[in-house]
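To whoever picks this up:

The parser on our side crashed when reading a file containing two proteins. I've narrowed it down to the boundary between the first structure block and the second sequence. Both blocks are reproduced below exactly, byte for byte. First block:
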Amino acid sequence: MDVTNLLLPLAINNKIEIAMKKNKKLFLTICLVISATSFLFSQTLNDQALVLQKCFDIGQLQAYYPQYANNSYQQLHVLQFPVTFPANLGVSKFGQPILFLTRAQVFASNPDAFFSFMTFSITGNTASVVFDFNYNRLSVSPSSVNVTVNLEKISNSWSITNLTLNNQ
């Protein structure tokens, strides 16, 4: 009986075990990367929602928000251009969800007012946002306010550190 024939299956089994251990490590590494990415992405979505909500809640803008004849506020709209947002951010104003609309939808629905975000950047614990709030669009003198806002995140709460409003 040849000893090599007996050792060959053992060598093959050993190689298979080594390959399985390497694949297991690779699989675990991939799972770790995916879960870390998911966590960071969810944090980013949460921060986007919080920063966006801060923009809608700027006190100086409240006077420009459109109202019905009974003085209740109309639903706010966001033009998804040039910056776009996921529609599932869960932001609201006056107890109503914010409507995120394409350019075609804004043209078709012709809202009295809408937000248009030029820049929306979150880096670590700081955020920088520039947007126009177009209002009185259905009147003879439509207007807009250009807003630049900088925010800082301290203890999971976003605060406005600098705010500039320019009527146009």
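<<boundary where parser fails>>
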Amino acid sequence: MNWLMFGLMNFSIGVFAQCFAGNSPRTIVMDIDPKTQNFSPCSRAFPQGVAGFWQPKTSDAREIDNSIDSAVKKLILQKGLQDDPVLPIRMQLLGIIVNGDSLVYINGFPSYMSGNAKKDSSEMIDVCDGGSDYWSILWSRKLKTFIDPQSNGI
């Protein structure tokens, strides 16, 4: 078997495995132990008042993936965070509970920052500064809306 065919098979298997696990090529549902994970991004604020964590479902990930591009573009432009938002290429999804509401914390970043599926689902990707290519936004499961977009500094 030639190396190109081997590489294509490995890529296809990886994409299939991510989709089967509730992930798409763009979304990574976090599977973490909150007791061992640091949730204080160095260039933007993590939501305050987190009372607990939950695992987003495949349907949540799919709904976020299908609606986030236009929502992020609109909210980021409204907040004046950047002139020309880079649409999310990869997103880590972490279920959090704030004031009794189930929210999904979405950590967005360029695809070249990920690649190890196990590590990407267990450790938040965090870049100090890095500009607007690194951002976060919350999704309300109850309201089916995006809120509180943030991006890194320069």
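After patching the parser it read the second block fine. The CA atoms of residues 16 and 24 lie 9 Å apart. The longest helix spans residues 58-79.
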